[in-house]
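Translate sequence into structure tokens.
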Amino acid sequence: MTTTAPELVVSSLDYDRLDAMIAALPLEQRAAGEALAAELARARVVEPAELPADRVSMRSTVCFESTHEHHPSRLTLVYPHQVGTHADQISVLAPVGTALLGLKVGDSIDWTLPGGEVTRVRILGIDYQPEREGKLHL
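Result follows.
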């Protein structure tokens, strides 16, 4: 769960796809799905064309740092079935993946990892965001 909760903004397309994905998750992924559902429940939902360019959306390539890593990471936020199709991807169901969704550049969020350790994730930049590039239906 989060201990610091910055505003989240997600596109209606991402919201609908993620909501459907959560509903269809197998039992072993339900806990991760519940964490994602809790974040979606507090998000402000906007049309894809209205998503600010500095917000992390699905398929965004994000540069971020976390307190459990010793260097910045650059990963693309993807759906679970897409993990492994390219290098440098993170599933939205991974704890840090869930934490990234909807944040803006400069935001930080405290996030509890599966072992109970709390990490702080901070968005340093967004190299690619589909909505910013006019790809509103990816």
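Note: The mean pLDDT is 92.
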